[in-house]
Design a protein that fits this description.
about 55 residues
Length: about 55
């Protein structure tokens, strides 16, 4: 498992946020942006608001 995680981290380290945003904009499904640095309560509130739309 450790080696798989390290490979993934190396893979994503070479990706820019711009490239990821471009990829996400091409998706047909709704996208919800969460920030793992925010408190769980703040992210939960974002999820609830999105589900209410």
């Amino acid at each position: 498992m450790y080696e798989q995680e390290q490979n993934f981290f190396r893979f994503v380290a070479n990706r820019t946020m711009e490239r990821a945003d471009r990829w996400v904009r091409g998706m047909a499904c709704p996208v919800l942006y969460l920030d793992g640095r925010d408190p769980v309560e703040a992210n939960a509130a974002r999820i609830r608001r999105q589900l209410e739309l």
